[in-house]
Amino acid sequence: MNIGAERVDYGAHGGDHVLYPDCRPEFVEAMDHVAGIANFEPVKLHAPYLYASKADILREGLAMGLDYRLTWTCYEGRELACGMCGSCRERLAAFAANGVTDPLGYNPDTTAGQG
């Protein structure tokens, strides 16, 4: 299905470069090039946070007034975030770097929790 999009937003960030090859600048640049020639109407791949840290991204979201109770980063897929997986740890570190408490509920059985 073609929805006629002129741009696709991609959420890769600077902290992902080591772990995920599809989040590296070279990959994003190559995909942007391919998206520009693979269709009759070019599509721009937009990765606004490609060089930003999670703390930088969180700072921007806080400035916009985003409700982080409605966001999820945990890899575990349980009712409450685990507080222990890499994603939870990065999230908690980003909140700590911004001097803000993460409003997301964490599993009380974990030792990481709210830091």
UniProtKB/TrEMBL annotation:
One Pfam match: QueC
Protein name in UniProt: 7-cyano-7-deazaguanine synthase
Listed Gene3D superfamilies: HUPs
Enzymatic reactions: 7-carboxy-7-carbaguanine + NH4(+) + 2 ATP = 7-cyano-7-carbaguanine + 2 AMP + 2 diphosphate + 2 H(+)
The EC number(s) this enzyme carries: 6.3.4.20
One GO molecular-function entry: ATP binding
PANTHER family for the chain: 7-CYANO-7-DEAZAGUANINE SYNTHASE (PTHR42914:SF1)
Pathway: Purine metabolism; 7-cyano-7-deazaguanine biosynthesis
A GO biological process held by the record: tRNA queuosine(34) biosynthetic process
Listed transmembrane segments: none
